[in-house]
Amino acid sequence: MEEDAQINRDCRAAAGLLLARAFFEAPPDRVAPRLLGKVLASRTGNGWLAGRIVEVEAYLGPHQAPPDPAAHAYRGPTERNRVLFGPAGHAYVYSIYGRYFCMNISCEQPGKAGCVLLRALEPVAGLDQMARNRGLILNARPHELTAGPSRLCQALGLARQSHNGLDLLDPASPLQLWESDLAVDRILITSRIGIRRAAELPLRFAVADNPCLSGPKNLLGRYVALSSL
DNA sequence: CTGTGGATTTGCT
DNA sequence: GCAAATCCACAGG
């Protein structure tokens, strides 16, 4: 099948395309914009599901300024957030509102916390399976598949029990982060979505004008070049 | 397109 | 006990 061939190529290339650990051993507000354009890939029983990261949010660790009371790590380690205080490049998946999941990537050196929340992807491989996972028709628009932090988890089949704590930089991992040669030029920076505390911090980063973004369309922000960050 | 309300697990105040 | 980094159905413009 045509799609299988594409997925196999992606799979074969995965080992050499994995991001480096050092990429994530930095403050999340530095990692977040540089993550745009990279590929999140999930291995399932039906092959790889993959999407380009087009929207993220940074959540700062308690050691960093300014204080970020919206971050799960704000009050220090707990049973839920312990992944955030471990090594960088691991998946922090938690359940929210009783029915959904959100996926983050841990940053900083072990002992320090901080993470990047994935808010939207642009589907790359396995679109039919994503539609099935989301309960949508096979020809659903890409935006319906993976625009939204819990939508993308549903599309890729991510859940806390199965994916929390996975190393995203291990070639044997079922959940990986791949490099991409697609350049991201202009980035939209806004406040973060869906939080009450520290709502004024400009820590949401999105690929400008990408059709797969989540959230209000008229959210104010500023456009910058990645090279200026 | 915008706005409203409900579903319903989890972890901490 | 209750608020939460959400999504969906539905109503109205």
Kindly list the characteristics that best describe this protein.
229 residues; alpha+beta; 3-methyladenine DNA Glycosylase, Chain A; nine-stranded antiparallel sheet; 28% strand; globular; DNA-binding
Task: Detail the topology: elements first, then pairings.
Blueprint: H1 2-17, H2 28-35, E1 39-44, E2 47-60, E3 91-96, E4 100-106, E5 114-125, H3 127-134, H4 142-146, H5 149-156, H6 160-163, E6 175-178, E7 186-190, E8 204-207, E9 221-225
Antiparallel strand pairs: 1-2, 1-6, 2-5, 2-8, 3-4, 4-5, 7-8, 7-9
Helix pairs in contact: 3-5
This protein binds a DNA duplex (13 and 13 nucleotides) through residues 57, 59, 70-72, 75, 78-80, 94-100, 102, 104, 117, 119, 148-151, 154, 192-196, 216-217.
